[in-house]
Design brief:
The complex is a heterotrimer of chains A (159), B (621) and C (99). By secondary structure, chain A is mostly helical. Helix content of chain A is 84%, strand content 0%. The N and C termini of chain A lie far apart (51 Å). Chain B is mostly helical. A two-stranded antiparallel ribbon of chain B has the order 1-2. The radius of gyration of chain B is 29 Å and the shape is globular. The N and C termini of chain B lie far apart (82 Å). Chain C starts with a helix and ends in a 14-residue tail after the last helix. Chain C has one domain: Helix Hairpins (Orthogonal Bundle), CATH 1.10.287.3510. Chain C is elongated and about 50 Å long. The chains are: A mainly alpha (159), B mainly alpha (621), C mainly alpha (99). Chains A and C meet through helix 1, helix 2, helix 3, helix 5 and helix 6 of A and helix 1, helix 2 and helix 3 of C.
């Protein structure tokens, strides 16, 4: 079952990426990227690391995608692309399907693979310990980097 | 110890003076450039007189290698100093005469826009000559030899706004190059056969050379000396070199430039002893040059050109003495000639300086421009007379003793004796002719000074008077010089002296007869014998030959330049450059500033790396 | 089976991202391509870390996510600034610093 779910996610991710590649529209490309990120988050969960999946969802889908979409809308009309304002209707349906089907599979598969979770949970615990002990400096640095980066983008959007 | 320091100082002091002058005497201070130079000259004179005293009182030869310099393939040479009787005697004369000429030049060149530059060149000339004299190997001597050539080039062309000065500078430089090639080949041959060019080694081993090689080396050295000392085939540069300022001519003729060649020959005498053919060539060329130059000098009108030909003639005497193997006579004549020729040049310079306003910017004067100056310039007249008496070889002036020695050394052979006596009479004739025409008499065709005459200042009078004393009394140096050189003390051979005195008086009488009894004779014969005058003016056709040779070479070079350089080589190199530019423009397409393309190249590179890694992985099995 | 699927997926995502980066001229699109590539690589890291039970790999994946977030933010900020200064802000127009 898990294998099937992984296969569905993989196919959906590849299809979304292909859609992004072949669409001339920046806006729909951005949404395709969102779909890909969603599939990757699902795959993280399927492989056993729910924490990373959730983080992926939070950081990418919640943070980066918002930024990109905001940037696209901010500059869209001037970018010289007539279709820049939004995805076509067919495109939107295809994307929706590409997101919904794997999610459904995941919800079904998750119930089946629940017993395999504990060792992964142990792993996540030790990861957290590593991050705040051995890699503490690195974690702090990356955190600071994210802060500064978000400040910069705030400044730009404010201007 | 003192002697070593003095020997080092002889070279080091002028070098320091040049550095100080070059670094600190700029702008307003450029007009005081003579101060460090004269100071350095004085110190060098003191050092060299001290060394001369030491050598005279029996100091052993000082031959010190200071620092190993070049070591190639078993050939070794070092910078070093050699203080022996020969170098120290010439050195003392050079230093003293140069000091006086430096003082004179500081007055003569006053107000010239290139005053600072002049003294730098001038002192570099002096430094090169001094370095040449104290060298202890042919290679080191060659370096300073080239330094002398370079500074003579710079000084002859000092007034570079004058076309003729530039041409003369080039002529001097190129003719000297022709001679230097000979010297350089001799140095290379020595390196080939001895592995070093140190005098000690070369002279000790010279006897073991195959005779042909010894003659070749000696001949090449003589060829080099011919150019520097203005002997017959290569003398053409010296008369033109009068384009430089007069102190330069004085320095060049008396102390630094032309004496270098004679010094080289005197220095190489142990080597020449193994090449008797070259010695006879030296006698022939010396005598030919002396006689021909004396004849030409007697027909010239320009003050400095007369003196230039006179120098050539006197140098011919020295080469003649060296060809006869008499180093003492040559060096003694070199020293006395240094005194009286410097004196004559400084007097000529004084005349030019005095006539400055009448010459309208010309930098030399002819005997027509001067004339009847004795009343207005009594000191110059007297000093010039002393120089003339000395040059003509009348007792008790210095030239008498040295010329007597030269004549003695060739008196055993009748033709040589006759010809050299004729030359002596000729030198007496031309120098008294010059004195009579320039300072005495009232002739119808003489222009004379048209504007007020500048009397020479103190800084010009003192060197002239000192040199007059030295020219008058220089004959006394013969005995100590002979003692230093280890030759028997010169004793006057009355037979020779009588002949010499007779020929000098004959020359004087002829000059008096030609110039004083018939006031316009000097102009009349030019009208009647124009062809002869032209022939003399062109060195009996030799100058035409050299000019034609130079012109032919230049045309040859032009043809080559046009046929090869302009038509073939330049288009070829240009097409190379063009194709490089084209290639570069094509290659620019690779980096036209598109980030996407750069990313594509990056991925291609990554792919290649992966491919290489896969290959390695596959080849492991 | 899962292994093979994931490898194919990662390779496909990476190549599509690279192609995206090379083909598209708009700076924002290039940023999207970059995100695709980062995700492909990250997926592989996570998979390997989980398969080996290696917590270090997971930590690395987390840091990659954070760094990618920062990179994207800076990239967007830069792009916005460029859009403000250039009328036609495609990558090849901005070459003032080209040698």
């Amino acid at each position: 079952m898990v294998t099937l779910a992984v296969a569905v996610c993989a196919v959906a991710a590849l299809a979304s990426a292909g859609l992004a590649f072949f669409s001339k529209n920046l806006y729909s490309s951005a949404f395709c990227l969102l779909a890909v990120l969603l599939q990757v988050a699902l795959l993280f969960c399927l492989l056993g690391s729910t924490l990373l999946g959730l983080l992926q969802l939070l950081v990418y889908a919640g943070g980066i995608m918002v930024l990109i979409v905001a940037a696209v809308t901010a500059v869209g009309p001037e970018s010289g692309n007539a279709k820049a304002l939004g995805p076509s209707r067919a495109h939107a349906w295809a994307l929706l399907a590409l997101c919904a089907v794997p999610t459904a599979f995941f919800l079904i598969a998750a119930r089946h693979c629940a017993p395999s979770l504990p060792p992964a949970a142990m792993l996540e615990k030790s990861m957290a310990r590593l991050l705040f002990n051995e890699y503490a400096l690195l974690t702090e640095a990356v955190g600071l980097l994210v802060l500064v980066a978000s400040l910069s983008v705030l400044k730009e959007q404010h201007d | 110890m003192m002697t070593q320091y003095a020997a080092l100082g002889v070279v080091a002091i002028p070098a320091c003076a040049l550095l100080v002058g070059n670094l600190f005497f700029h702008g307003r201070w450029a007009s005081r450039m003579h101060l460090p130079m004269i100071l350095s000259c004085l110190l060098v004179s003191l050092c060299s007189l001290f060394l001369a005293w030491e050598v005279h009182s029996g100091m052993p030869l000082l031959d010190a290698a200071l620092r190993p310099w070049i070591s190639l393939n078993g050939c070794m040479d070092s910078f070093g100093l050699r203080i022996d009787a020969l170098s120290v005697s010439v050195l003392a004369m050079v230093a003293v005469v140069s000091t006086l000429i430096h003082v004179y030049a500081s007055a003569y060149m006053q107000g010239d826009p290139g005053y600072g530059r002049f003294f730098l060149y001038f002192h570099f000339f002096f430094l090169s000559m001094v370095g040449l004299l104290v060298s202890n190997s042919y290679l080191q001597l060659y370096i300073f030899w080239e330094g002398v050539g370079l500074s003579s080039f710079l000084l002859i062309g000092f007034w570079r706004h004058k076309e003729s000065a530039r041409a003369a500078a080039w002529k001097a430089f190129l003719v000297n190059r022709i001679g230097d090639v000979g010297f350089l080949l001799a140095v290379l041959l020595m390196l080939r056969y001895f592995g070093t060019t140190r005098f000690e080694v070369v002279f000790r081993l010279a006897g073991e050379l195959p005779p042909g090689i010894a003659a070749l080396i000696a001949g090449l050295l003589f060829w080099g000396a011919c150019a520097k000392s203005a002997q017959f085939p290569l003398h053409v540069w010296l008369p033109d070199a009068m384009e430089g300022p007069t102190p330069v001519s004085a320095l060049m003729h008396a102390a630094t430039m032309v004496t270098a060649g004679v010094f080289l020959l005197a220095r190489s005498m142990p080597l020449f002893a193994h090449a008797p053919q070259v010695m006879s060539a030296m006698r022939a060329i010396g005598l030919l040059t002396a006689l021909a130059a004396a004849i030409v000098a007697a027909t010239q009108k320009d003050l400095k050109r007369i003196l230039a030909y006179s120098t050539i003639s006197q140098l011919g005497f020295m080469v003649l003495a060296l060809g006869a193997g008499n180093v003492l006579a040559a060096v003694f004549h070199l020293i006395t000639h240094g005194f009286f020729k410097a004196l004559l040049f400084l007097c000529a310079g004084g005349v030019i300086f005095a006539l400055h306003d009448s010459l309208h910017g010309a930098t030399s004067a002819s005997v027509d421009d001067a004339g009847g100056l004795s009343g207005r310039l009594p000191i110059l007249t007297g000093a010039f007379l002393i120089g003339a008496l000395s040059l003509a070889g009348l007792p008790p002036f210095s030239g008498f003793f040295s010329k007597d020695l030269v004549l003695e050394s060739v008196f055993s052979s009748r033709p040589l004796a006759v010809l050299s006596l004729l030359t002596a009479a000729g030198s007496s004739f031309y120098i008294f002719r010059m004195w009579l025409l320039a300072f005495l008499g009232d002739r119808s065709l003489q222009r004379g000074p048209s504007s007020p005459v500048h009397a020479p200042g103190l800084r010009m009078k003192v060197p002239i008077l000192s040199l007059a004393v030295l020219s008058a009394a220089g004959g006394m140096l013969g005995a100590p010089l002979a003692a230093m050189l280890g030759a028997p003390a010169p004793s006057l051979d009355l037979h020779v002296s009588a002949w010499a005195l007779g020929s000098a008086l004959l020359g004087f009488g002829a000059a008096w007869r030609a110039c004083m009894s018939r006031p316009d004779f000097d102009w009349d014969w030019r009208k009647r014998a124009g062809a002869f005058e032209r022939a003399c003016g062109r060195d009996f056709g030799w100058q035409d030959f050299t000019d034609g040779f130079a012109r032919a070479m230049k045309e040859c070079a032009d043809v080559i330049a046009d046929a090869w350089e302009n038509r073939r080589w330049d288009p070829f190199t240009e097409s190379l450059a063009d194709s490089c530019v084209g290639l570069g423009e094509q290659a620019c397409a690779l980096c036209r500033g598109r980030v996407n393309e750069y990313a594509a190249w990056m991925f291609l590179g990554t792919l290649l790396l992966i491919f290489a890694w896969v290959l390695r992985w596959v080849s492991c099995f | 089976m899962i292994e093979l699927l994931l490898r194919l997926l990662c390779a496909g995502l990476f190549i599509l991202g690279a192609a995206f980066l090379v083909r598209r001229r708009e700076l924002l699109a290039m940023l999207i391509g970059l995100e695709l590539m980062i995700n492909a690589a990250n997926l592989m890291i996570v998979r390997t870390a989980l398969a080996r039970g290696d917590a270090h790999g997971l930590a690395a994946a987390l840091i990659v996510i954070a760094a990618a977030a920062a990179e994207a933010a800076v990239g967007v900020a830069l792009i916005l600034a460029l859009y403000r200064d250039f009328a036609e802000p495609e990558a090849e127009e901005i070459r003032e610093l080209q040698g």
